[in-house]
User: Which sequence fits this backbone?
C-alpha cells in the first residue's frame, strides 16, 4: 500500500512540475527604449507639427501610440539631472537625492556634481571625463527593477552625449552606460561598468563620425522662407554664438572644427545623429531584443538643450533641430522594426525639462520677464552680512535658485543665523526679479501657493540643498543678456511631452493631469515588475491596450 501511495505521490508531483513548465511565460516586449529629449517644451509637438514628416518619429508615435498632453514635473528645480532621475525612478529629489546638476553638500562642505565618482576611472579616454557613476542616486530605477525581475539576465544600456543623461537613467546595476568625451570625440565609460571598452565601441569610435558631420556643415534643411512662420529673424542680438562670434546665422561652416574641437558637435543637430548611430550600434552588437528576456535601452538626446540654451525656443536653429530630430527618431523606429520586429518593442518619449523664452525676446514683444543677476546679488548680500555681523562670505553660493550659507563660518563668528537669514530674505524681496523668498526648511508651512509649495518641498533634500529658496517672477531667469535657461516651477519649464508607443500600448490620448513621476511605475506595470524603490507616481492605465 505504501509503495502504491509513493508511486501516486510521485506521479502527482511529476504532473505539477510538467504543468509549471508548460505555464505561459509573462508577456513582455522584447525591448524597451526610453527616450528623453533634453529640453523639450510640450507645445513643440503641436507648434512644429506641420513641419514633422509622416514618416518621422513624432507623428508616428502620436498617430499610432498614446499621448499624455498634460504631463507636468512635480518638483523644482527643473534641471537635467533631476529630470532624468525622476523619469526612471518615479521619484522626486526629496527622496532620490539628485537635487540638481550640481549642489552644495552640507556634509562634505563642497560642490558636488550629480554623477561624480572619484573612486572610478575613465575607460576609453585619458581624460577624467569618465570618473562617473550613479552612486549619488539613492533609489533604484525601473531598469534596475527589470534586472532584478529577470535575475539580472535583462541587458540594460544607457547612451547620451551628457554623462548624466546615460548614467542616471540606466541605474545602478546597468550593464553599461556610454557618454561622449568632448575632448576626444569618442564615446567612453568608467570602471564602474567595465575595465575596457567592447570591441564594437572601439570600432564605432574609430569611424569618427563627428568629423564627417563637421564636413557637411549646418544649413537649414527646409527653404528659409518656411522658418519665418515659426521663429524670429535668423539673427538676433539676444541669441548666443556658441559656434563662434563670427558665426551668428545660417549656414554654419563646421569644417573648421574637424579634428580640432569635438565639443561643438553638441550644439548642432548632428549630436542627435551621433546619438542615434551609437544607439543602433549598441542594439546590433549587444543583440538587444534577441534574448528570451526584455532588454532596456535608455537614450537621451542632449543637443536640443545645448541649442536651446544658446538660441532659445523661437530661433531658426531650434526649429531646424526639431525637424531633423523628428527625422532621426523616424529612422530609429524603422530600425527597430527591422531588427527587433514591429510591435515587439515598447518606446516612451518624454523630456527632462522644458525652457523659458529668452528675456530679450519677451521684452521685444512686450511680455513680462527679465533677468536676475545672482552674482551681483550674492556679492551685495555678502557685503551687508560682513558689515553687520562680521562674517566674510557667509553666502557660499546660489545653487538651483537657493541661497546656501556657510554654517561653519557663521558658527565660528557666533553670529545670529536667523538674523542673517532675515537680512537675506529682506534683501532678495527688494529685487525686481524676485517674487518671494522663504527658508527651505519651512517651505511646507509657508504662505506660498500650493503648487509652488509642493514643488519646492519635493525638491528639498536637506544635506544637498540651500537655506533659502528664491522664487523668481514668471518670465525671469538667472543669466546674462544672451540665451536662456530653465529650472523654475513655472509651466514653461515644467510642462513636458509624454508619448508611449508599440507593444502593449493603445492608440489614444488624454488631457488628464499626469506627472513625470508616473512614467516609471507605468513602464513597471507594463512589464509586470516592481516599481522603483522610491517611486511615488501612479500608473497611467489609459495607455495600455
Assistant:
Amino acid at each position: 500500500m505504501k509503495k502504491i501511495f509513493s508511486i501516486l505521490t510521485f506521479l502527482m508531483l511529476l504532473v505539477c512540475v510538467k504543468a509549471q513548465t508548460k505555464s505561459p511565460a509573462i508577456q513582455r516586449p522584447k525591448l524597451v527604449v526610453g527616450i528623453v529629449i533634453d529640453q523639450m517644451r510640450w507645445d513643440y509637438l503641436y507648434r512644429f507639427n506641420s513641419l514633422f514628416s509622416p514618416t518621422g518619429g513624432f507623428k508616428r508615435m502620436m498617430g499610432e501610440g498614446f499621448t499624455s498632453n498634460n504631463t507636468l514635473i512635480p518638483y523644482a528645480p527643473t534641471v537635467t539631472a533631476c529630470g532624468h532621475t525622476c523619469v526612471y525612478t518615479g521619484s522626486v529629489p526629496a527622496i532620490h537625492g539628485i537635487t540638481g546638476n550640481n549642489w552644495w553638500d552640507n556634509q562634505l562642505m563642497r560642490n558636488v556634481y550629480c554623477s561624480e565618482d572619484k573612486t572610478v576611472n575613465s575607460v576609453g579616454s585619458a581624460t577624467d571625463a569618465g570618473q562617473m557613476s550613479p552612486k549619488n542616486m539613492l533609489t533604484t530605477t525601473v531598469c534596475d527593477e527589470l534586472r532584478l525581475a529577470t535575475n539580472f539576465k535583462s541587458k540594460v544600456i544607457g547612451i547620451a552625449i551628457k554623462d548624466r543623461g546615460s548614467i542616471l537613467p540606466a541605474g545602478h546595476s546597468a550593464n553599461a552606460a556610454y557618454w561622449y568625451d568632448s575632448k576626444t570625440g569618442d564615446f567612453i565609460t568608467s570602471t564602474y561598468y567595465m575595465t575596457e571598452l567592447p570591441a564594437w565601441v572601439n570600432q564605432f569610435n574609430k569611424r569618427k563620425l563627428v568629423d564627417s558631420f563637421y564636413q557637411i556643415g549646418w544649413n537649414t534643411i527646409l527653404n528659409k522662407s518656411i522658418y519665418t512662420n515659426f521663429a524670429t529673424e535668423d539673427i538676433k542680438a539676444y541669441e548666443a554664438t556658441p559656434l563662434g562670434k563670427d558665426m551668428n546665422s545660417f549656414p554654419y561652416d563646421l569644417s573648421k572644427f574637424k579634428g580640432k574641437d569635438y565639443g561643438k558637435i553638441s550644439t548642432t543637430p548632428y549630436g542627435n545623429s551621433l546619438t542615434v548611430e551609437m544607439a543602433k550600434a549598441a542594439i546590433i552588437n549587444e543583440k538587444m531584443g534577441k534574448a528570451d528576456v526584455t532588454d532596456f535601452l535608455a537614450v537621451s538626446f542632449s543637443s536640443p538643450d545645448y541649442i536651446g540654451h544658446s538660441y532659445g525656443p523661437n530661433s531658426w536653429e531650434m526649429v531646424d533641430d526639431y525637424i531633423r530630430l523628428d527625422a532621426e527618431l523616424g529612422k530609429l523606429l524603422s530600425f527597430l522594426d527591422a531588427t527587433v520586429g514591429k510591435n515587439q518593442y515598447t518606446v516612451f518619449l518624454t523630456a527632462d525639462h522644458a525652457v523659458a523664452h529668452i528675456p530679450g525676446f519677451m521684452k521685444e514683444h512686450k511680455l513680462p520677464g527679465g533677468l536676475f543677476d545672482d552674482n551681483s546679488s550674492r556679492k551685495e548680500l555678502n557685503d551687508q552680512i560682513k558689515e553687520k555681523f562680521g562674517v566674510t562670505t557667509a553666502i557660499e553660493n546660489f545653487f538651483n535658485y537657493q541661497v546656501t550659507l556657510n554654517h561653519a563660518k557663521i558658527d565660528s563668528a557666533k553670529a545670529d543665523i536667523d538674523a542673517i537669514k532675515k537680512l537675506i530674505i529682506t534683501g532678495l524681496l527688494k529685487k525686481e526679479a524676485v517674487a518671494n523668498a522663504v527658508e527651505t526648511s519651512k517651505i511646507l508651512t509657508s504662505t506660498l501657493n500650493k503648487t509652488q509649495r509642493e514643488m519646492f518641498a519635493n525638491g528639498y533634500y536637506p544635506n544637498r540643498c540651500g537655506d533659502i529658496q528664491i522664487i523668481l517672477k514668471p518670465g525671469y531667469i538667472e543669466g546674462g543678456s544672451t540665451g536662456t535657461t530653465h529650472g523654475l516651477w513655472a509651466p514653461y519649464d515644467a510642462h513636458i511631452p509624454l508619448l508611449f508607443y508599440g507593444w502593449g500600448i493603445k492608440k489614444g490620448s488624454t488631457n488628464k493631469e499626469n506627472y513625470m513621476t508616473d512614467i516609471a511605475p507605468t513602464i513597471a506595470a507594463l512589464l509586470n515588475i516592481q516599481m522603483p524603490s522610491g517611486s511615488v507616481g501612479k500608473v497611467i492605465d489609459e495607455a495600455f491596450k
User: Anything to note?
Assistant: DSSP finds 20 helices and 21 strands in the chain. Residues 153 and 396 are 46 Å apart (CA to CA).
